[in-house]
Amino acid sequence: MTRVRFMEVVIVADAAAGAEIVGGAIARLIAARPDTVLGLATGSTPLPVYDDLVRRCDAGEVSFAQAKGFALDEYVGLPQGHPESYRAVLDREIVGRVDFAPDAVLTPDGWAPDPAAACAAYDRAIADAGGIDLQILGVGTDGHIGFNEPTSSLASPTRIKTLTEQTRVDNARFFDDDIAQVPHHVLTQGIGTILRARHLVLLAWGSNKAEAVAATVEGPVTSMVPSSALHLHPHATVVVDEPAAQQLRLSDYYRHVYDNKPQWQGL
Ligand code: GLP
Known about the structure:
7-stranded parallel sheet; 10 strands; Rossmann fold; globular; 3-stranded antiparallel sheet; alpha/beta; binds 2-amino-2-deoxy-6-O-phosphono-alpha-D-glucopyranose; 267 residues; 17% strand; 9 helices
């Protein structure tokens, strides 16, 4: 069934409630199509969803044995195997905790001698896999998705980017609070790449994301707020907790829409 719905905002009490909704939707997707292709995000935001999926996998409710995955992004310049490389983070947080087949989850090759070629190969690999069915997204405090910083082209492919100082400050907590250890460069799926996924699910928890969420949902579509590109997608779901929703002017309306949503529609 084709479902053209555009952006939906789901306001939940807390991250655990959001994770239950998103984990359930992913489990149903995989039950219907075991060879589902997932887009996997890093950062702290998706962790409750990954915990939910691990629980469902342990309970025999979902199997990733035929599924594939693609990471959103990767640092450039970290030593191979660095625990904060997104390859290592994804292996630790989700891939190694469920029953993905070996090599079923790819990350952009942040160690490639030719980063441009590695980025082009990554977009080809996504296309060869049939495209991403459901892409999980977090959002940076400046509205970045993946590592597409403000002014990223809304049509961008996977490519190398230079991080803003704000993002390096935000991510220093993963590097002993030492900004000097945070790489300057990354490979990231482009916004154009992200928009080709069939369903985008952006998650945000906590009041420090409230401004970015309001700009995403209620601001103009602009490259200054990369997450606002979700308005260009036919099936984007924004799942936020109460603190992250606090700057939304139409929050009552979003609640009303969700409360009265036909059940057959799913997420
Ligand atoms: C990083 C990641 C993004 C993530 C963002 C927010 O920059 N590349 O994919 O959305 O951080 O991080 P957190 O979820 O920890 O707030």
